[in-house]
Design goal:
Largest sheet: 6 strands, parallel
Strand order of the largest sheet: 3-2-1-4-5-6
Radius of gyration: 15 Å
Order of helices and strands: HEHEHEHHEHEEH
Number of helices: 7
Oligomer: single chain
Distance between the termini: 30 Å
Structural class: alpha/beta
Shape: globular
Length: about 170
């Protein structure tokens, strides 16, 4: 617990690092939907629009999608400057995803597998935890599992969109 145990492929990391460097800004990965019915999917459907205040408050950063399903239509509908790379997060080879995540400057989003990957790689991430979380999102603001992971908890009286606004 709390010790990174995965190492992403160095060559794939180099490719993502070169791309991110060409953008000239910190790169932040965001996840706005996660889970299945058995893993509280209903509690993890926030939608990209809820991230608008966060994205608009950070013109100094590039935001990239960490969605496992194609979010192209949703990104277009919001008009938000979020980039999506099919190869990064929809690849059948999870080494591509690991290398992509390893090169991100920050990760923010609904609790999904991507946060477990980030933790295993030792990457900084902020997990949006619903007011009624699953057992593995213990009490407190820090993950008992991953040292670089912080929990940002939804208050009982607020929407997840309002929870995200508190990050700005």
């Amino acid at each position: 617990p709390r010790t990174p145990y995965l190492i992403a492929d160095a060559e794939r990391r180099l490719q993502w690092r070169a791309l991110f460097a060409s953008w000239g800004k910190p790169v932040i990965g965001i996840a706005w939907t996660g889970g299945r019915a058995a893993t509280q999917r209903k509690e993890r459907l926030v939608g990209l629009e809820a991230f608008r205040p966060l994205i608009e408050s950070r013109p100094d950063a590039i935001f990239v999608s960490l969605q496992y399903t194609d979010p192209t239509d949703e990104i277009a509908a919001t008009g938000l400057p979020v980039r999506h790379s099919h190869r990064a997060v929809q690849s059948p080879d999870y080494d591509d995803t690991a290398a992509f995540v390893a090169e991100l400057d920050d990760i923010i989003g609904i609790h999904t597998t991507i946060h477990h990957l980030a933790g295993a790689l030792g990457k900084k991430s902020t997990v949006l935890v619903p007011s009624r979380p699953m057992w593995n999102y213990a009490l407190g603001d820090e993950s008992p599992w991953y040292a670089n992971q912080k929990y940002h908890r939804q208050r009982k009286s607020e929407s997840l969109a309002d929870c995200i606004k508190r990050l700005t």
